[in-house]
Structures are given as structure tokens and as C-alpha cells.
Amino acid sequence: MATTGATHNRRADPRTAEKCRSRGRAVAARWYVARALREEIATSAALPRRRAGMAGRVGSLLTVAALAWGGAGCGSDAERQDVDEPEGEFQVEVVAAKFQTEQRLAQTSDLTLEIENTGKEAVPELAVTINTGDEGASGPFSVRSDQPGLADPNRPVWILENGFPKLASKLASEDLGAAPTGGATAVQTNTFSFGSLPPGDSREIVWRVTPVQSGTYTVRYELAAGLTGKAKAVTDDGSPVEGEFVVTITDKPPRARVDDAGNVVIQGG
What we know:
It contains four helices and 16 strands. By secondary structure, it is an alpha+beta fold.
């Protein structure tokens, strides 16, 4: 980098400094370039052939080549993410799994998983991956739309409340809103990590969600003992630890009546 010359009490070559700065700008921009490429692919069907032809392909190839050259030229000291993760199988069990199977639009619900370490070793990093539907959308409670021309095909079915998921082992349901968050998204936007789980201990985890799209959806969850795939969560018989909920969301308003005491009673809710 440009600062290297300064540490040796000699004047840095301005051409070398400019080259490294250019490479740094190319690497720093890679996320925005990737997003732009995805959007171009999603909307290219509506473009004239002359605009989406050879010029576009050449520009994409040049961009990719520039990014690769910039990253290799300046180097990286980043270590492998899986260097500290042990390899093996760790026994865990989902003691309880709860999620209302009949819901209404804008009616908040809690998805709750109680997970116990039934093995003899500590789980290195308890991780839960959640997916909705079969297409693997970017977001645990979203589905992918097949409508052509969308810059972002991911469409939310539920909105995850801010600050969730949370650990609810020692908290009443009404106190969860003020509790600190219990997990952070890691590795992917659909995966949440909750730290190490000692033998015999358990975690009760709550995702508070509000449906915004009607229909019937399958919500699947899968557990892991690490974030890189080396540490695997298994049942007592060695099977993957996973499960699913089939949920129907209706857009019909609930039926309500007033009882003899003047209270509003929701029927079927």
C-alpha cells in the first residue's frame, strides 16, 4: 500500500501508490458491483438486444478481471473462518417447537425452539438456519417470486421484529420485547448463531414475526454445531436435526362479538 514507503524513510513512488489506491477502490466496490450485476441480469429481458449484447458482456468480463487483479495485487491477511471450528458430530435435541399453524395478516406470532445439548461435549457454536418455501430466498421468512423483471425477487411473508430472535428461557412472554437480542445473523442471512452450548444445557429461542402475505407456506429449520460445516448437529441416531411448520395465513378479518359484560370477544382467533 502507499503507506509502506513511509515506514522506510524514503519517498514512495507516486505511480506505485496510485496503482494500489486504484486496486483498493476496486476491491472496496465489489459488493456494489455484484448487486448491480444481479439487477442487470434480472431486468435484462426487457432491454433491446443491441443494449444487452456484446458491449454488456465485455463490460462484465472487464469488471470481474479488474476485481480479481486488484484483490491479488494488494494481498490479504484474512484467515480462514473455519480454522478454530472442531470437526465432528454433536448430539442435540429439539425439545419443543412451536409456531401457530393458522394465522392472520398483521397478527404477531412467536416461533419458538427449545434446544438441548444431549451429548457429552459442548456444542462449539449453536446455529439455526430457517428457510421459507423451497426456493431458498435471501431471508429466513421470505420466498422468491418468479415474476420476471424484478431487481429483487425476494418477497417477505413474515416480518421479523427488530431485536429478535431472543432467548426466553428465564423470561415471561410479555418481557421479551425489552430483553436484549439472543442471536445474531451469521454466515448467511438465514442463519442465526447463539454461542456455545454446554452438555445438559438448553436454549429456548424466540423469533417474533408478523405475517404480511396470505397463503400457505412451509417454514423449515435446521440446526448446526458450527458456522462453517465442520461441526455438525445430529440426533441420538446420527440424523440431521431439522423440522418444519406448515402455516396458513388468511387475509380475512376475525369475527368479533361483544359479550354480556361488554368485552370484545374474538371468535376463531
